Amino acid sequence: MVRSPVLSTSIFKVNVAGIQKVDDMLAAEEPLEIRISYSAFAKKIQKSISVTMRTPGNDFELATGFLLTEGIIKNAADIIGIKHCNGLHENVVRVEIKDDLQLDLSKLERNFYTTSSCGVCGKSSIEAVRTVCRLPVEKNDNFQFPSEIIYSLPLTLRTQQEIFKNTGGLHACALFDTFGNLLLTKEDVGRHNALDKLIGAALIDNTLPLNKSLLLLSGRASFELIQKAWMAGIKIVAAVGAPSSLAVQMAEEFGMTLIGFLRDQAFNIYTGSHRIKISL
């Protein structure tokens, strides 16, 4: 039985009218350890490669998306099998990698540039990402998103955030087509986990690259999220919040369209304005 993504609790609600004890819901947060199993020197090796705090659920998609966006695998065929260790109750997922895959585990040693406080310059960070990422998307393409469709996307996403409705404590991301149809959405306490879950689900469904979809982020656009989007072939990223300077720099260099502050029938275009069709 898979753990619930929400937990019930009792709280005291305080306002000018007084104090009242009521039932409330919390977004669950638990650690997930991702392990890989592979062959080396004629023997089977199991290695723990990540521990992340996540909302329980979609663990296989999270692990698959993480391996893709970290450059460990290239497609779903690189995975032989994936399962929870010691039953469904355990917060450990083991991914078995096919034997002939040339693993470069040094690609996982990227923590020096993934945090906003690392102090590494933008150029060095982007050059590090080049070692694990796919080739840049084509800048000169005819793919466009109408502005009137983009205005409507945050509300569409919010109405689909089932766990957020109950807890108010989750990040979300979603894919949309040019008609504003919601293709896929994922939630998690971690914004990076939510995107890994979404990309992992797309990889498992064999719908990569996502080069005809818009990715909407419920919060800000960080460098890591732009990198993960690029690995999935996404050309347009829109965020309800602000982008970081390094996110803008990376989107510009890699030929992506980056939108920020998408709210109240308005947004800012930071890079790749040629993919946005403005309707007046």
Report on the structure:
This protein is α/β, with parallel strands linked by helices and 280 residues long. It has a domain at 145-277: Cytidine Deaminase, domain 2 (3-Layer(aba) Sandwich), CATH 3.40.140. The chain is 27% helix and 33% strand. It is built from 8 helices and 14 strands. It has helices at 59-69, 111-114, 122-130, 147-160, 162-167, 191-204, 223-231, 245-253; strands at residues 6-15, 18-27, 30-40, 43-54, 79-84, 92-97, 145-146, 171-176, 182-188, 214-217, 236-239, 257-263, 266-271, 276-277. Strands 9-8-10-11-12-13 form a 6-stranded mixed sheet. Strands 4-3-6-5 form a 4-stranded mixed sheet, with helices on one face. Strand 11 (236-239), helix 8 and strand 12 (257-263) form a beta-alpha-beta unit. The N and C termini lie far apart (52 Å).
Topology:
Blueprint: E1 6-15, E2 18-27, E3 30-40, E4 43-54, H1 59-69, E5 79-84, E6 92-97, H2 111-114, H3 122-130, E7 145-146, H4 147-160, H5 162-167, E8 171-176, E9 182-188, H6 191-204, E10 214-217, H7 223-231, E11 236-239, H8 245-253, E12 257-263, E13 266-271, E14 276-277
Parallel strand pairs: 3-6, 7-14, 10-11, 11-12
Antiparallel strand pairs: 1-2, 3-4, 5-6, 8-9, 8-10, 12-13
Instruction: Determine the number of helices (DSSP H or I, runs of at least 4 residues).
Output: 8
How would you characterize the largest beta sheet?
Answer: 6 strands, mixed
Strand order of the largest sheet: 9-8-10-11-12-13
CATH class division of the domain at 145-277: Alpha Beta
What do the pLDDT scores average to? 80
Shape: flat
Low-confidence stretches: 111-124
Radius of gyration over C-alpha positions, nearest whole angstrom? 20 Å
Report the strand count. Answer: 14
